[in-house]
Amino acid sequence: MKVKLWRRVFAASMSAAMLLGLTACGGGSDSTESSESSDGIKTFTMFTAMPGSEINDDNEIMNIIAEKTGAKLKETWLTGQTDAEAIGTIIAGGEYPDFINGGDAMMSLYDAGVLVPWDDYLEKYPNLKEMYTDEEWDKFRQEDGKIYWANVFQNTYGEDRATTHNDEAFWIQARVLEWAGYPEIHTLDQYFDLLESYADANPTMANGTKNIPYTALCEDWRYFCIENAPQFLDGYPNDGSVIVDKDTMQVVDYNTTPTAKRYFQKLNEEYQKGYVDVEFATQTYDEYIAKLSTGAVLGMCDQWWNFAYNVNDVFKQQGLDEQGCNYVPLGLTIDEGMENRWHNYADTLNNSSGVAVTTSCSDIDAAFKFMNDLLDQEIHDLRYWGVEGVDYLVDENGLYYRTEEMRMQCSDPAYQASHMCNYSYMPQWLGTSRDGKNAMQPDQQASEFLDSLSTPLQKLFDAYGVDSYVDLIGSVKEEPGPWFPMYSYSGSMTTETPGGVAWVKMGEVKHEWLPKVVMAPDFESAWNEYMTAYNAANPQDFLAEMQTELERRAGL
Fold first, then answer.
1. Cα gap 133→155, rounded to integer Å
2. pLDDT tens track for 193-234
3. From CA 500, how far away is CA 493, in angstroms rounded?
4. CA nearest 360: which of 19, 91, 20, 98?
5. In sequence order, what DSSP letters do the residues of 34-56 get, joined into one string?
């Protein structure tokens, strides 16, 4: 049982004033009483350095969980800042929430000495301990030998029930593939040829909205949407910061490979021909999601969790799903005949970030008990399935399912805010429920997944002979090496080492130059300027430290 990459990302909703004024449940002796109501229910606070949506204070399932566990959680989210900026502001203020997830800035919280070790509590609370094996927990240990956080995403309990490709891909709308007669699309060139052909033949949607063949996101850390495709196009899995050549056991810089140049040259050609969104370089995440939500964007490269949990609900509410606007993943490679590794079939241990308890919490034991309680099956069902008879039904075989009316209701943002309560950055499970029948979360219930598909998606699945997005992308099934993913190391780097300094500078250069390369009238000239700036960041320092870590993880 391991963990993958971050999963749910929602629209930002927390104001900067709330961030600056964020205080802990036990931030001082005078705040302790306010953390517990007259009925004995504790209210914990949590800040997550990711955008998200707050639920209503009187949220129905939150209150049901509170009655059963004796606690509830007030969640606040990132807005208008990077994770490092937000965490820096909190550290400077000296007041902390009870729970915190600092994203890539977790090490700043550790260095500030404001996190509570988990070690003693893991033995006391078995649901938490069960999330990882002893060997996996050891990978979360910091320099002082203690554990201070746990990543909560995509831990598989029991049997893997994955139906969704939760990872990165080149995505394309079902309507495009249907129009073309469901062709086999394997390479980057084939992908853009199809987008061009469809856009030429169908310049607008039925409502007159102009179709956008391809867009990309370059904002802040999300510029991975344009930046890291070369590793996949060369047939490698998502190590995220380097390629690992298993034959030589050497790290390879995917930013400078021949495939990287071919990929960006292709984007440049498509941009010059008018098939790449002219706003791609400057659009914000919210603008990007709004654009996708119109149904007008035919394709993009992105992680499923970065768009689907927002966009798919809008499609369902507006009937765009029945117009074929849902996105499906394609496992593209740079040339025909190559294996693709876009989908990872095993859980991925990302130990660089996760949920933590802060020293400001006035009842640390209760905080760990609350996380433990959230993994009880009854509570987990409430978080992800909802209330029986209201949000799902149970058939004669004990299998959970939803009616179409329930699915529509659960996709309504107002209903989500007033009724549903995922606690989406707290410990959770995927896989099989403890009853051995149901999936821990609805989108992994095979029958529910298939029944919930729009008509165009059902036709597409039939045409390609698949039962899930995982089957459709067709990645190689293999166990990742013990080093995987290397981004769990680069994500914890600091500027205290030459490699960490280079890592920051490399990111800054790519963030500045990649949009320029795509838009440049003279690609070769722009690419050469980019490479000059990139090499000035001393990537060799970064690669040397990554090589040392690879050898350590591989036992070399």
1. 11
2. 999 999 999 999 999 999 999 999 999 889 999 999 999 999
3. 5
4. 98
5. GGB-TTS-EEEEEEESS---PPP
List phi, psi (to 5°) of 393: -120, 170
Q: How far apart are CA 306 and CA 508, in angstroms?
A: 21
Strand-pairing partners, residue 393, are 401
Name the DSSP class of 27: S
Sequence-distant (6+) residues with CB within 8 A of 513 are: 526, 529, 530, 533, 534
Please give the DSSP secondary-structure letter assigned to residue 458: H
Q: Which of 102, 101, 52, 99 is nearest to 77 (CA)?
A: 52
Residue 303, strand partner residues? 168
Instruction: Mention every residue, 6+ apart, whose C-beta is less than 8 A from residue 211.
Output: 198, 199, 202, 203, 204, 205, 296, 297, 298
Q: Which long-range contacts (CB under 8 A, 24 or more apart) does 254-259 make?
A: 254/228, 254/230, 255/227, 255/230, 255/506, 255/510, 255/534, 255/539, 256/531, 256/534, 256/539, 257/230, 259/230, 259/233, 259/234, 259/334
Report pTM: 0.85
The pLDDT tens digits of the residues spanning 456-492 come to: 999 999 999 999 999 999 999 998 999 999 999 998 8
DSSP structural state of residue 357: E
Among the listed residues 187, 319, 281, 259, the one whose alpha carbon sits nearest the alpha carbon of residue 517 = 281
3-state helix, strand and coil shares in percent for the chain, rounded to the nearest 5 = 45, 10, 45
The structure tokens 């199809």 sit at 194
Give the pairing type, strands 99-101 and 356-357: antiparallel
How many helices (DSSP H) and strands (DSSP E) are in the chain?
25, 13
H or E, element range at 61: helix 60-69
Handedness of CA 318, 453, 8, 70 (dihedral sign): positive
Tokens 């490709």 — which residue? 165
